[in-house]
Design a protein that fits this description.
Strand order of the largest sheet: 3-2-1-14-13-12
Distance between the termini: 25 Å
Number of strands: 14
Helix content: 25-40%
Structural class: alpha/beta
Order of helices and strands: EHEHHEEEEEEEHEHEHHEHEHEHHH
Strand content: 15-25%
Mean pLDDT: 96
Largest sheet: 6 strands, parallel
Radius of gyration: 19 Å
Length: 388
């Protein structure tokens, strides 16, 4: 039986989403050694689309060398890598190359940043046409570069990509996934998944997961109790397993829950975040309760969001300038000290659990879609009433 896979989502505490520009390999090596020491074998990290593909036909050579250094550092630490391509959406901001933007489409819900400046436009059609064809260059270049690399576990196509733009149809979404997955498998000989998130299930965003996930090695889901309007409390431990079982049901595949967590409450003297938050002790209890439930309900594994709180300097920079809660999701504090949740993850890893088969479906895709969006709260109430 396969081991229940534990991992961490990674941005460094001193640079966060500016990691690729303010590249500090020494900090990364130190962090990777600590992650390995906690018994978390997989690091999911993020390849900034804006930095890596500044023009449709050009992949930045300096960024590729920095990516080489990251992959080699992970291998040296005895860790496996899940690189997330085409990032894209991250922490409430859309970071995109300017050539991907649609000047007839306003930015909308999420701010757009490109080459360090805010722009008023939203993403163009990333799922088809010229942007997809240009995307294939990045996928194939990076895929071939890391074929048989000792750190590479699997690829993640993109992070919460429907927050960049919702695909125009299920057929377009399916073909986007199939095309890029094929490119990555052909060039790298490694499996692929895609970073879907809770709103892809609680809204109809033109995903039909049985067909969308067909070429993927597993399905993926992200979810947070503090963001779920159906949660019973800030620390509701059934929100994440509910989303996991929904994705198992509609995709017909086992699910890797590669983002879960919650923000810690503001640091002493800091202003409120505008979001619900957890004390450090609440966060530790929440982490164990969710991991235990995910394991018993058939998940392949789970990755905490995220490695580190960010240093105070980053409060003035996107995304934290408008979303200060993004400073406080880490298992280590911004001074590098460990929070209680780090010890919980280490203890859970030491249990050496193995993944078990998913239970029977709890929904069927057609009836689930027909009930959206109003049916989500009722479905969750029924689920929570029958699950401890």
């Amino acid at each position: 039986m396969a081991q229940f896979l534990l991992g961490i989502n990674y941005w460094p505490r001193r640079s966060a989403m500016y990691m690729w520009q303010r590249f500090d390999l020494g900090e990364l090596r130190e962090d990777f050694a600590r992650i390995r020491g906690l018994g978390l074998p997989v690091v999911r990290f993020f390849i900034g689309w804006d930095e890596f593909q500044p023009e449709p036909g050009r992949i930045d050579a300096t960024m590729l060398k920095r990516l080489d250094a990251v992959m080699n550092a992970l291998a040296d630490a005895g860790l496996r890598a899940m690189p997330s391509l085409f990032t894209g959406h991250m922490s409430g901001v859309n970071w995109l190359p300017e050539w991907t933007l649609d000047r007839s489409r306003p930015a909308g819900r999420f701010r757009t940043f490109s080459a360090g400046r805010e722009l008023p436009w939203g993403a163009g059609d990333i799922y088809s046409g010229p942007i997809l064809e240009a995307s294939r260059l990045l996928a194939r270049t990076i895929g071939a570069r890391y074929r048989n690399h000792p750190a590479l576990l699997m690829w993640d196509l993109s992070n919460e990509f429907s927050n960049l733009r919702i695909p125009s149809s299920p057929k377009v979404a399916k073909e986007w996934c199939a095309r890029l997955t094929s490119d990555l498998i052909e060039t790298s000989d490694a499996g692929v998944t895609a970073g879907n998130h809770s709103e892809d299930l609680t809204q109809d965003r033109n995903f039909r997961f049985e067909s969308f996930c067909k070429p993927l090695v597993c399905a993926v889901m992200h979810g947070y109790s503090v963001y779920a309007d159906f949660a019973r409390s800030r620390t509701d431990p059934n929100v994440v397993p509910f989303l996991c079982q929904l994705m198992q049901s509609v995709s017909g595949k086992a699910v890797l829950f590669n983002e879960f967590g919650n923000p810690a409450c503001p640091r002493s003297g800091a202003q409120g975040t505008g979001f619900a938050c957890l004390s450090e002790d609440e966060m530790a209890r929440y982490a164990y309760d969710v991991l235990d439930r995910l394991h018993t309900r058939g998940a392949l594994g789970a990755f905490w969001w995220c490695w580190a709180d960010y240093v105070e300097e980053l409060r003035a920079w996107p995304p934290c300038d408008c979303a200060p809660h993004e400073l406080n999701f880490g298992i280590i504090r911004y001074d590098g000290s460990e929070k209680p949740v780090a010890r919980v993850l280490k203890s859970f890893a030491a249990e050496n659990r193995h993944a078990i088969a998913p239970p029977p479906p709890i929904v069927y895709e057609d009836s689930w879609l027909a009930a959206l969006p109003d049916g989500v709260k009722a479905a969750y109430r029924a689920y929570a009433s029958t699950h401890g």
